[in-house]
Amino acid sequence: ASLNAHSSGRLTLTGNLNASGFGDAIVLAADKQFINGVNALLATPQGRWLIYSNDPADNVLGGLSPRFTHYGCTVDGLCSGDGFKVATAQGNGLLYSSIPVIPQRTVRDDASQQQDESVVLIGPSPSTSPVLETSVGGGTSGDGKNNRHNPRQQCQ
């Protein structure tokens, strides 16, 4: 059997959950917060668990460890137009509707010109090489258009 639960506010685990279903055996969705303050386990021996929530900063995972994390997703499994497909992703996952924006900071380009950069993380968790999309302004080389960067590229 599978378990699906949706809350229009906070979804709180108060104990372990077990589901023997195949595929998406446990799907938990919270429009606002997911709280696992008791370190409950999600057991899915023949499938996986998925947790949908708004913002990771509002959650308490209580030791749950996903294989992947993705941003810009809705409960129906659709994610922002970056090509990520929840249905074909492997393992347990955390899916957030928000897309985090890293605060502006000053970086230096190759010509040592200072630029202001706003970075949006699009795609899977950093462990699976997301794409960093940036808007660059100021300096002589920035044209103000979106640019894609290798996440392993170092800024000095």
Please provide a written account of the structure.
The structure is a single chain. This protein is an all-beta fold and 156 residues long. It is 0% helix and 42% strand. The chain has strands at residues 3-7, 10-12, 17-18, 23-30, 33-35, 42-43, 47-53, 68-71, 93-96, 101-108, 114-122, 131-137, 146-149. A hairpin with a 5-residue loop joins strand 10 (101-108) and strand 11 (114-122).
Index terms:
42% strand; 156 residues; disordered C terminus; single chain; 0% helix; four-stranded antiparallel sheet; five-stranded parallel sheet; globular; 13 strands; mainly beta
Number of strands: 13
Our Rg estimate from Cα atoms comes to 18 Å
- Structural class category: mainly beta
Distance between the termini: 52 Å
What portion of residues belong to β-strands? Answer: 35-45%
Biggest pleated sheet: 5 strands, parallel
Tally of helical segments: 0
- The H-and-E topology, N to C, reads as EEEEEEEEEEEEE
Q: Any idea what the shape is?
A: globular
Which range best describes the helical content: under 10%, 10-25%, 25-40%, 40-55%, 55-70% or over 70%?
under 10%
